[in-house]
Amino acid sequence: MHEIAILGTGYVGLVTGACFAELGNSVICIDIDVERIDGLRRGEIPFYEPGLEELVHRNVASDRLFFTTDYSEGLINKDFIFLCLPTPPSSNGAADVTILRAAVARIAEVIQSSDVLVVNKSTAPVGTCQSLQRLISTVNPRLAGVQVLSNPEFLREGSAISDFMSPDRIVIGAEDRYAAERLRQVYEPIDAPVLITDTKSAEMIKYASNAFLATKISFINEIADICEKVGADVSVVAEGMGLDKRIGKAFLRPGVGYGGSCFPKDVMALAHLGAIHGADPKLLKAVMDVNTHQFRRVLFKLREQLGYIEGRTIGVWGISYKPNTDDIRESPSVEIMRLLEQEGAEIKAYDPVAMPKASRRLPNVRMCRNVYEVAEGADAVLLLTEWTEFKSIDLKRVASIMRTPIIIDGRNVLDPLKAQEAGLHYVGVGRGKVRKYREVESDALIHPDGEWSTLSGED
Ligand code: UDX
Q1: Judgement on whether residues 278 and 369 belong to the same structural domain of the protein
Q2: pLDDT at 443
Q3: Do residues 151 and 53 share a domain?
Q4: How far is CA 180 from CA 54, 75, 80, 170, 176, in A?
Q5: Entry pTM
Q6: How far from chain centre, in Å, is Cα 375?
Q7: Which ligand 1 atom is at minimum distance from the Cα of 158?
Q8: Where does the pLDDT of residue 438 fall: very low under 50, low under 70, confident under 90, or very high at 90 and above?
Q9: Same domain, 41 and 123
Q10: C-beta of 322 in contact with ligand 1 (< 6 A)
C-alpha cells in the first residue's frame, strides 16, 4: 500500500486516483476548484466516463479515496505526488506549462522530505521534468534531492478505466534508476510491459504516439478522399491494409477528422517543439492541414447536394468528438457547426450526452430531444459522431419527415443500401459507388461481378 497524492481532478487525475485506490493504495486527490471538490465529496462526478462513478463511490466508501483543496493537508507524508494538470496550447502552439510550474512551486513550499517522488502525467514539452526538478531546488534548496519522473498516460476517454487497468505499456522516465524502480512497484498489480527510460525519451514517447495515431487518421482520411474520386471503397481498402501486421487495423477509420483534448494540441505542440529546435516537421503540419480540411469537406459535400447553405435547415446527429463521452473539446462536430453558422444555416442538433455542454458553447443551435426531431423539416442531416444508437435509427421515418432527404454520414455508420432503400440520398466518406454484395459465407462476401472480397461486414 502506498500513500499517493494526485494533483488535478480532470479526466486523467480522477481516473488515475480512483484506479490507484482500487489497487489498494491510499489516495488523496487535490484540486483548487472548490466546487469540484465539494461535488466529489458528495459523490458527484464532474464529467461522463463509463464506470467511473461506481469506482469512485466504492473507494470512497472503503476509505481509500479522499478529496481536498488543501495542498498542505494533501501533500504531507506522501510516497508519490502525481501531476495530472492541464497543459493547454499557448498562442504559438506550444504547450503552456504555467499551471504545472505553479503547482510544483507550491509542492516545494509544502513538502518536508526529499523522499517523495513527483511524477508527471501531464503531456508536457520534452525537458519539462528536468526543469521542474530545477524549480523545486530553486524554491527550496533543502529539497534538491527530490526526483521528478515522467509517466505519460495513454488513457482514451470512454475506456479510460480499462486503459488504466490493462494498458498496452507503462512508460517510466527517470534520471535515477532507484526512483524508476520505486514507481514500477506502484504498477506491480498491473500486467503490462514496463519501459524504463530517461525523462526526455518518456516525454517524447507520449507526443510521438499521439502524433502517429493522428497521422494514421489523416492518412486514411486522405485515402478516403481519393477513393471517392476514383470510385473505390475505403472501408475495404482500410481492411485490406490493416491485415498487414506492419500496418495494423486500428485508427484507420475515416471520418470528419480527429478531435478531443489531446490529438489537436499534442500534434501542434510537437510541431512547435521540433520547429524551435531547428527541425522542419513537414509531416506533422500536413497531418494538421488534412484534419482541418476534413471539417470543410463536409460543407463541400453539403453544397454539392444543396447548391447553397445560407438559410437552409441543417440537422446534426452527434456533437461529442467521439462516442461514449460528453467531451466537446476540439470536436469536429462543433467546428463544422461553427462553419455552418458562418454560412448562415439554421442548425438543429442532438447528442445522447453532450447537449448540456454544447448548448453553452453553441447558443444559436437548437438542441433537440432525439434524432427525429432533428430530421423534421431539415434540408439535410449530418451524422458527425458514431454513437451506437445511431445504427438503429428508423431511416424510413427519417426520410418521410425531412424537407429534402439528404444524409451526409461523416462516420460511415449507416448502411448505404438500407439508407437508399428507405428513400434517403446517402453520402458517406470514401465509399465510392454503393454496390450490392452477395453473401456467400458468414464472413466472406462476393461482388456481383464475381470478384471476391474478405470484407467482414463492419457496416
Ligand atoms: C487520445 C489517445 O488515444 C490517448 O492515448 C491519449 O492519452 C489521449 O488522446 P482520446 O482523445 O480519448 O485519446 O480519443 P481517441 O479514442 O484516441 O480518438 C481521438 C480522435 O480520433 C477522435 O476524434 C476520434 O473520432 C478520431 N478517430 C479515431 C478517427 O477519426 N478515426 C479512427 O480510426 C480513430
Answers
A1: yes
A2: 52
A3: yes
A4: 31, 20, 12, 12, 6
A5: 0.91
A6: 28
A7: 12
A8: very low
A9: yes
A10: yes
